[in-house]
Design a protein that fits this description.
22 strands; Flavocytochrome C3, Chain A, domain 1; FAD/NAD(P)-binding domain; Methane Monooxygenase Hydroxylase, Chain G, domain 1; globular
Length: 539
């Protein structure tokens, strides 16, 4: 018998999987009477929030309005936004900003013409007004650090680092009837043991799934864990075909994944072909300020037309000191690669950036499993529709996290009797001596998704991708059943599941809309319908 079975059990009133803006803000909103565990698979600040550059979209200016922000979001979503969800989020934007300021978040300010200090607001693609509040070009870092500092000061919040969730445990899995969450299994990466974490309220704040693509702006944590776990637990997912490709990521052999913020185009940066020609006005009257899907497809079209491997983003015509002041992180990072953005255009390519679909929730973050909540990028809330508007994502994280916290607080009771959950059984598995298979499958999955399920799609490409992903899933499941779990295996299993959901959703959509463009159905249908998938254990 193998001795790597681990039987210890931890217990929390609320367990949050993920330590980005959604997870941390939810924890901070919960009452002190509840014992809260925050699980993160790396250091607590390692996630997409930390690397977010742009800012938080919010109505803070007298020239702006709630209705204008709603209208812009609806337009970007190309008919698939749910207006009640959009209004729910936008109406709470000022409150969210005030809360962040109260925690110590330092947003950029300027002196107005009247001599008073006010927030410096920038404009990004799809927005009709300057409404993006930011901390230079490292807004996510500033928010993350302040949220983390506040969370570590609260004695009722515990962090479980270097721990990756394996699967959600529900009562029906234990033969106890109704589909109610009772905890999770998780891998402690420090000692490679699987532990049981019991909780009557589990929150998925795990981020998106952009790591399913070969090129992504996201950190390695974006492996779709929450979406895959929720699906296996019996939750529906929606609109998984809408994968946002950020138009401008740094193209350099040493730059693994570095985003060039939307805000550069908001401040006047121009997209140019390698010969210096500006081209966006040929694709949209808004030129560089068109929504991300239009800009990404335009770049993809020009790269394919010319056979080039990148285009250029040029802000060198702007005053150098302004560029350095507004974009210090981007300036320094590009400079480290020998690119002075005040004098030289930036080589850029599109890269997978944001998962617009995900786990279906209501406005309180509730999923199809009792006691299981989901917030942030792992979710479908109805806010983003067929395309997310820039800087609405951090806002969504914070609004829905606080809404879910209020819902959990209204029903959660400390000292709940925890169910007796069986320990993880690893007695029938062995160590793998063929980890090269995992590495190969990783590479194959991400390449085929990039080549066949990317910015431009076709049924032929999708069907080919689907066949190969199904085969990969069988190979992965066989390996999973026979060998000890590792982080690479867990993430590969999850990403293969997410890839299958993306492809299935894309095949169902017989039109081009928003982020989903197919050469077989280039027109947009009159009626906008969500793509909803249900697992076999949904009912």
């Amino acid at each position: 018998m193998n001795e790597r079975t681990h039987s210890s059990t931890e217990q929390f009133d609320v367990l949050i999987i993920g330590s980005g803006a959604a997870g941390l803000s939810l924890a901070l909103t919960l009452p002190d009477r509840l014992q809260v565990g925050i699980l993160s698979k790396e250091r607590p600040l390692e996630g997409s929030t930390y690397y977010a550059q742009g800012g938080v979209a919010a109505v803070l200016d007298d020239y702006d309005s709630i209705d204008a922000h709603i209208a812009d979001t609806l337009r970007a979503g190309d008919g698939l936004c749910q207006e009640p969800a959009v209004r729910f989020v936008v109406e709470r934007s000022r409150e969210i900003v005030e809360w962040l300021v109260s925690l110590g978040v330092q947003f950029d300010t300027r002196v107005s013409a009247s001599g008073r200090s006010e927030f410096h607001l920038t404009q990004e693609g799809g927005h009709s007004h300057r409404r993006v509040i930011h901390a230079a070009d490292a807004t996510g870092k500033e928010i993350s650090e302040q949220l983390y500092s506040a969370a570590t000061a609260k004695p009722n919040i515990s962090f479980l680092t270097d721990t990756i969730a394996l699967d959600i445990i529900t009562t029906n899995q234990l033969g106890l009837g109704s589909k109610t969450v009772c905890g999770i299994y998780a891998l402690n990466q420090a000692n490679q043991s699987v532990t049981t974490i019991a909780s009557p309220s589990v929150v998925l704040a795990t981020g998106g799934a952009s790591k399913v693509y070969l090129y992504t702006s996201n950190p390695d944590t974006a492996s779709g864990d929450g979406i895959a776990m929720a699906w296996r637990a019996g939750c529906r997912v929606a609109n998984m075909e809408f994968n946002q490709f950020h138009p401008t990521c740094l193209y350099h052999p040493l730059a693994k994944s570095f985003l060039i913020s939307e805000a550069l185009r908001g401040e006047g940066a121009i997209l140019r072909l390698p010969n210096g020609e500006a081209f966006m006005s040929r694709f949209d009257e808004r030129a560089e300020l068109a929504s991300r899907d239009i800009v990404a497809r335009a770049i993809d079209f020009e790269m394919k037309r010319l056979g080039c491997d990148h285009v250029l983003l040029d802000i060198s015509h702007r005053p150098a000191e302004d560029v350095k002041r507004h974009f210090p992180t981007i300036y320094q990072r590009c400079l480290s690669f020998g690119i002075d953005i005040t004098t030289t255009p930036i080589p850029i390519v599109p890269a997978a950036h944001y998962t617009c679909g995900g786990i279906m929730t209501d406005l309180a973050g509730r999923t199809d499993v009792n006691g299981l909540y989901a917030v942030g990028e792992s979710t479908y809330t109805g806010l983003h529709g067929a395309n997310r508007m820039a800087s609405n994502s951090l806002l969504e994280c914070l609004v829905f996290a606080r809404a879910a916290a209020e819902e959990i607080a209204s029903s959660a009771r400390p000292g709940t009797t925890f169910l007796d959950i069986p320990s993880w059984d690893a007695s029938q598995v062995t160590s793998s001596e063929e980890d090269v298979l995992i590495a190969h499958n990783w590479d194959e999955l991400r390449r085929l998704m990039w080549n066949y399920v990317g910015i431009v799609r076709s049924d032929a490409r999708l069907i080919r991708a689907q066949r190969r992903v199904k085969l990969l899933q069988r190979e992965i499941d066989e390996h999973y059943q026979r060998h000890f779990v590792t982080r690479d295996l867990i993430e590969l299993r999850n990403l293969a599941q997410v890839a299958d959901l993306i492809i299935a959703s894309a095949l169902r959509r017989k039109e081009s809309r928003g982020l989903h463009y197919t050469t077989d159905y280039p027109e947009t249908m009159n009626e906008a319908i969500d793509t909803i998938l249900a697992p076999t254990n949904y009912a």
